[in-house]
Every structure is written in C-alpha cells, then in structure tokens.
Amino acid sequence: MRAEFHMLAFFLGFLLDQLLGDPQGFPHPVRLIGRLVSWTEGALRGGGEEVRKETAARGKKEEVSESEEGRKETAARGKKEDVSGNGEKRKREFWQGAAMAAATLALTTAVSSVILLAAYGLHSWAGVLAEAWMTYRILAAKSLRTESMKVHDALARGDLESAREAVSMIVGRDTDVLGEEGVAKAAVETVAENTVDGVIAPMLFTAIGGPALGFFYKAANTMDSMVGYRNEKYLYFGRAAAKLDDFLNFIPARVGALLLVAAAFLGGLDVSGKRAYVIYRRDGRKHASPNSAQAEAACAGALGVCLAGDAWYFGKLEKKPEIGEGLRAAEPKDIWKGNGKRGGLDEVQIGGENGGSEGKQTEERDESDPWGRYLQKLRET
C-alpha cells in the first residue's frame, strides 16, 4: 500500500464523516464489535455461577464441631478458604477478561486487515475506496456534534424533558434529576471528553497504521465502554480492557487538550486561551483516570465554566472533584461553542474515553464514545 493512497483514503474518510456522520439505520462496525464482546464474555464466564454454587455446596458439607475450640478452628479455616477462594476468583476473572480482550482485538484487527488487503489486491482504487469507507466508520466527529446539538436545540426551545432524553443518549449519568444547567454541563463534558475518544485518538491511530490500527483502537475503546466498570461484576474482568484503554489514550488525551488550548487562543473574546492553559495544568489530573480530565479541564478553562463534580449514577450519588473556576453557570450556548460552531473553535473539534474512561475503570461508565449507550442497552437485551 503506497503512502499517497493511504493519505488520500484518510482524507476522503474524514470528509465522509463530516458530510454523512452516522445516518440512522446504517450498520456500524462498532455495534459488531459490541456484539463480539458480549458473546465472548458470555462464552468465557458461562460457568461462573455453577462454580460459585459448587463451592457453596462443598462448604455446607463440612461438619462443624460442637466444642468451642472446634467452632473457632472451623471459623478460622473458613476465613482462610474464603480469602483463598476470592483470590482464585479474582485471578480467574482477570484472565477471562484478558482473554476476551485479546480475542476481540485479534479478530477485529484480522478482519479489517483481510478486507483492506483483498481490496488493494483487486485494484489500487478499490483499496482506496475501501480504506476511505473504513476510515469514515472509525471516526465519530459528526455524530458527536449532531447528538450534542440535539441537547442544545431542546434547551433553546425550553423543552427540558427532551433535552434530558437527548443528553441521556451520550452520557452515562442519571439525567432525570438534571435541571437546565445540569443538562448543559453534562453535554459540554461529554463533548470535551470525546475529543479524544471520538476524534483525536482514532485519527492518530488511523493516520499512523491505517484502518487496521484504527479498528484496533476502536475495539479497545468499545471494550472499555462495556466492561470498564469498577463494580463487583467487572472490577477484575474488565481490568485488562480498562488499562489498555488508558494506555492507548495517554498521548492522544494530552494532544487533544493542547489542541483545545491552542483553539481557545484563536477563539475571540468569549473564550480564553490563557485560562484554558491554566485550568488544564491545574485540573488536568482531577479524575480517577489519567486521561479523562485532560480535555475537560482545557474546555472548562476556555469557557469559564465549572465541569465534573458530583453526579448521580444508577440512583447513587458519586462524589467527584470539580474542574474549572465556575466564573458562570454552563449554558446551552456552551454546547454550541464546544462543538466549534463559533468563536474560532472551528480549528479544533472540541469533542473527548474517556480520553479513556477509563486506570479509570470507574463504577459508572464515563461519558465515552457516542456508541456507549447503544452498547450498554445491547448488553441488557
């Protein structure tokens, strides 16, 4: 594959994303990756419940001594076995998760490579067209802008219920408790975070290694969106996916944040490049993830608003540090600004896994990837 063909396909793929976004009803490779993750998890963890039942039944068969000394000895032995059993369970879940990650990455990369090689084998221009289409499906700038602007438009109409519904499709928090400021703030946050996951990182990986490396990244990011939770079910099973996503997004998150700072310097009087840089340096690490607060801090500083802070997830209040100075409340127009609609921010798509949601592996799903809500619903059906 010649470099000029790759660069042409990359440009065409980016152009297609800007023109088409994600039309309703179009099949998307990320959904296929999501189904692969769900199927692989089910295949690997299918026997987990039977193992737990067998362990519990074996424990009940032990005869407890009626003497005080016998009871103490049995209790001590039970604690040791419980600790040992938990340790074995954690190891088993971790390696199951690692196997799921390896299988998903290998299959995704192999399929995309075979398709690309076959297309270029037919003809150079067939290869360019195939690579351009694959690049288009890797990027998510237009879809993020479209979905977040639905929130803006609903707020502009004064329709809070529709705004809550729209923002619920791109964030993981509970939205039914949010007021107008909370909805606007949530939308700005997810636009900021997805600069990395939906725009910067996919572009970097695809530019460097073509669609095969681009889909490798998308597979890692999708796995993190689906299993990168810090809860009982996924704490160990999802650890490999979460750590991989953190590793892959480490550089893109910082590149994205610096691009946002640079864009803010070009943005006119209603955004501040100096404040964007100061807040980025001060608050860029205020997150469990090494990446998630990077772009968010730059965006909060540029706009002069306060992002992050406490939020409700699945009916539970999560305490989080605030990012930014909060010179004013977040407003619907900040969603507009964040998407580069005005103020010179067109130079950069202010858009985010979570530079990785993900060291993250938080209990809730971070505002990562526009497909995250779909994938979570896919898991529940």
SSE blueprint and pairings:
Blueprint: H1 3-20, H2 29-45, H3 48-60, H4 68-122, H5 124-138, H6 141-156, H7 160-168, H8 180-227, H9 239-265, H10 273-283, H11 292-303, E1 307-308, E2 311-313, E3 316-318, E4 322-323, H12 332-338, H13 372-380
Antiparallel strand pairs: 1-4, 2-3
Helix pairs in contact: 1-5, 2-4, 2-8, 2-13, 4-5, 4-8, 5-8, 6-7, 6-8, 6-12, 7-8, 8-9, 8-11, 8-12, 9-10, 9-11, 10-11
Count of domains: 1
Structural class: mainly alpha
Percent in strands: under 5%
Mean pLDDT: 78
The helix fraction, in percent, is 55-70%
Low-confidence stretches: 47-72, 341-360, 362-371, 373-381
Give Rg in angstroms: 23 Å
Q: Supply the number of helical segments.
A: 13
Overall form: globular
Sketch the major β-sheet.
Answer: 2 strands, antiparallel
Distance between the termini: 41 Å
Number of strands: 4
Order of strands, widest sheet: 1-4
Sketch the topology as an H/E string, one letter per element: HHHHHHHHHHHEEEEHH
